[in-house]
Amino acid sequence: MIRHNVLFSWKPEATEEQKQQVSIELAKLPSMVASVRAFVCGPDAGLVQGNFDFAVSADFDDEAGFLAYRDDPGHREIVQRYITPILAQRAAVQFEF
Question: DSSP of 21-68, one letter per residue?
Answer without folding.
Answer: HHHHHHTTHHHH-TTEEEEEEEE--SSSTT--SEEEEEEESSHHHHHH
